[in-house]
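Shipment paperwork, digital attachment
Item: protein structure file
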Amino acid sequence: MPSTSVDKSQLALLMELEPVVAKELDRHLSTADEWFPHQYVPWSRGRDFDGPLGGDGWSPEDSTVSPESREALLVNLLTEDNLPGYHHAIARVFGREGAWGTWVNRWTAEENRHSIVIRDYLTVTRAIDPVELERARMRHMEGGYEATHGEDLLRGVAYVSFQELATRVSHRNTGRASGDAVCEQLMARVAKDENLHMIFYRNLLAAAFEVDPDQTMRAVTDVVKAFEMPGHTIDGFLRKSVAIANAGIYDLRLHHDDVLMPVLRKWRVFEMGGLTPEGERAREELGEFLEQLDQAATRFETRRAERRARLAARRG
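Attachment content:
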């Protein structure tokens, strides 16, 4: 059984869910496509940079992607860069042996392709200042990564069920907003991986609902209420996230409608029976929070539309 730092109750849950992990791992391996990052990078666009090779330094005019997608690409890549921290976090909970350990290593290998291909694209096409990018990477990774859910198994699986889908939505919309067909194709390829990862975790938590519906409902509610993207510690993340939201790449409406609700519906959390009063309280709390989030999303959409109308009027 995996050697983890979790307590005995979580160890028992790990053991009970391991057959599900093995089944989902087999399904994932039969579904995932083999792909190669180098095939998605337009190498012919590249040229030497300044420095030891004596090339040309980066300038803003070099970038052909939209300013909004440039912010999103930076956030997306820095998020992917912190993979060592994510690997450490899930390995501490899932363990490094058996089906759990095999999944951890497979997931890490697949995720690593994302930072490789996005960075190669950004560097070759000069979409982002590579000096700024490297300095931001160093600051972000030196800060490390600490999961908001700690080493709690149910909260960890609930979190990644939503986070993988959120990342898929963000990557896909970033590519669409870029104005570059190559970038859109590349980000769609990355998003496909994220979707398969989401399905793995979503199905795993569905099994956890069958094992312990009350505690799983509590975990889901806590995660939804406290959800933060893993890159929230990036320098200037709030400013960047506002720009990304204003561009419609990832905002509250998308988070509510395209991330939270599809997963919750798949788990049938609001139709589920067999909950104790404790589980019912968690579900009611979840429903109340979702109503508040929906209202906040509507307010944001209204303000954004008003801002766009004012800007259009000034330009007109």
